[in-house]
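User: Here's a chain of 103 residues. Predict its fold as tokens.
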Amino acid sequence: MANGHGGARPGAGRRTKADRHEGPILRVEALIAGHLEQAVANLIALADGGDLKANQYLIDRILGRPKQAVELAGEDGGPVEVVHFYLPANGRERERPDADRPA
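Assistant: Prediction complete.
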């Protein structure tokens, strides 16, 4: 706008979660970094002592977690039904004008 009113303004709008919590996050990261070596040593000691969760955590961190299969199915194991809605500019839901034509 020629008169300087309206439009996007720098710094306007809601701050992101990362921006709102930047200070506390940096302080906690510094605290964790100072104890990281001891935390890893403790984790390894637990794993050496037979702690299965500690072993699994270390293995997952080094090798990566295995992919997990996810199966999607509709009612009674059939296909998943997908429904599309057409919302015109006035916002009222109605059938799409070309709904009877095959895709």
